[in-house]
Amino acid sequence: MSDAALLNPPTTHYEFFGPAGTMVVTVATTAIPYLLYYGCETAEQCPPTSWSAWKNRLQRLTLADLYDSHIMLLYLAWFAYLVLLYYVVPGSTKPGTVLRTGQRLLYRINGFRSLLITCGLMFTVHRLYGPAPFIYVYDHYVHWLTASYLFATVQAVLLYVWSFRGPSTSSATATIKLKSDADLKADGNGATASPSTGAAQPVLLALGGNSPSAFYNFFIGRELNPRLGDFDLKVFCELRPGIIGWFVLNFACLIKQSQVLNGYITESMALIFFLQGLYIFDTLIYESSVLTTMDVTTDGFGWMLSFGDLTWVPFVFSVQARFLALQPVVLGPILAATVVAIGVASFLTFRLSNSQKNIFRTDPHDPRVRGLKYIETATGSKLLISGWWGLSRHINYLGDWLFGLSWCLTTGFRSPIPYFYVLYFAVLLIHRERRDDHKCRQKYKKDWERYCSIVKYRIIPGIY
Ligand code: NDP
């Protein structure tokens, strides 16, 4: 068997109900951001009074409604600006998880600083030019959506084609090669500083992206970590153009509302800006924790992540702020206090549980996790069975979902459109939990069954 065949075994297990399922998901997820926009185009039509009104509106759309070449160029400039920050802003370097090749890729960590610089830039632009540039961003919402969609799709096609290239030598500065346990302990972060050199290696494919179906592979992603030199496209897209873009869109919505309300904003707008801002800042403050997520360790960089990171995140997650820009909602003290209470409790659940696992996995002797119970597995990894991780096997998902609910509640109860987020996110998290369970069952075998018999619930303690 060739090196490439040994390294990249064929995919035998399909996710998303196989090739047909991924086609349905592709079409549906392409349509949804547009349906959400045109389902809530004006305060009176959110949602339209009937499905036929909605359909009529969609049928009247012209190319100019959907696409604008200036915005396309500005989107490319936005992407290039973030690439520039990636290179010029000082940051640290962190190793990713161990790959099947035995190597660990190095990642540049300066996303949070890129966010702060962008905030500074937004503040400066607002001081110099007032609200106009942000109203422009708001008014071209659909054009941005289409620009990001085209970029994400073209990127996915190019990456798919590029994944068929022949073996190459990995960049000496971009990877580190593991030597021994002693070396791992030597530098405290599990990696040695000796660069990999020499022999050409076949392209490392995602285990799930090497099936007989070309479309399925395009969707899931063939190559695990496509890179241009040291520049890791997947991790860059995962955290920067979409997530930081979402923050800019939310700010544009806030400015739009203050224009409509003669300089004021409602407490609901302040809340959504603050709560989602907290999520965005948290994501980038804990930038390196993305390196151990399924997206980075398991999934290839295909259409699913390219579209998800660049289009879905900014344009589906900003629906509440856009709704509030159209329809200023005054929550009143009781509902506002409820939103804050759910937001704070769920954010703490999400953040503390994720941090507890990260600390435990980095250093089980850390005083913050030393007293926790865990089980040893045959692979050498330990699984927590007390603390947050004794409550359910994915208590972090529950915190994340409830945090999303607090965002939706900022819009009151006038329209179901902003609640689409919690519906979709429930489906995503339930499906994600099943995928993670499948992965862990294969990895830990009998130990996973033992773990599940101790921590019985998947996501919601006592219920599910
Ligand atoms: P998790 O952070 O929950 O990590 C799952 C992995 O953790 C498992 O594969 C296993 O990996 C390890 N693990 C499982 N149980 C234990 C345990 N008891 N003790 C120690 N390690 C354990 O998964 P995700 O990457 O899916 O999610 C990370 C965060 O990102 C979540 O908070 C989620 O809500 C959020 N998220 C948000 C999304 C969004 O769109 N807003 C989308 C997806 C995720 P190992 O093989 O190392 O043992």
Automatic annotation (TrEMBL):
Membrane in keyword set: yes
Task: List the InterPro entries hit by this protein, alphabetically.
Answer: ERG24_DHCR-like, Sterol_reductase_CS
> EC number(s) per UniProt?
1.3.1.70
Read off the Gene3D superfamilies from this record: 1.20.120.1630
Q: Does the keyword Zinc apply?
A: no
- Primary location: membrane
- Per the UniProt entry, what is one GO biological process? ergosterol biosynthetic process
Pathways involved: Steroid biosynthesis; zymosterol biosynthesis; zymosterol from lanosterol: step 2/6
Q: Which UniProt keywords apply?
A: Lipid biosynthesis, Lipid metabolism, Membrane, NADP, Oxidoreductase, Steroid biosynthesis, Steroid metabolism, Sterol biosynthesis, Sterol metabolism, Transmembrane, Transmembrane helix
Q: Which GO terms describe its molecular function?
A: Delta14-sterol reductase activity
Q: How does it sit in the membrane?
A: Multi-pass membrane protein
**Reaction(s) catalysed (UniProt annotation):** 4,4-dimethyl-5alpha-cholesta-8,24-dien-3beta-ol + NADP(+) = 4,4-dimethyl-5alpha-cholesta-8,14,24-trien-3beta-ol + NADPH + H(+)
- Locations listed in the record: Membrane
Give the residue spans that cross the bilayer. Answer: 71-89, 110-129, 141-162, 264-281, 301-317, 329-350, 401-430
Enzyme class, UniProt record, top EC level: oxidoreductase
Its Gene Ontology cellular component terms are: endoplasmic reticulum membrane
The family assignment reads: Belongs to the ERG4/ERG24 family.
Q: What is this protein called?
A: Delta(14)-sterol reductase ERG24
The species this protein belongs to is Tieghemiomyces parasiticus
Q: Which gene encodes it?
A: ERG24_2
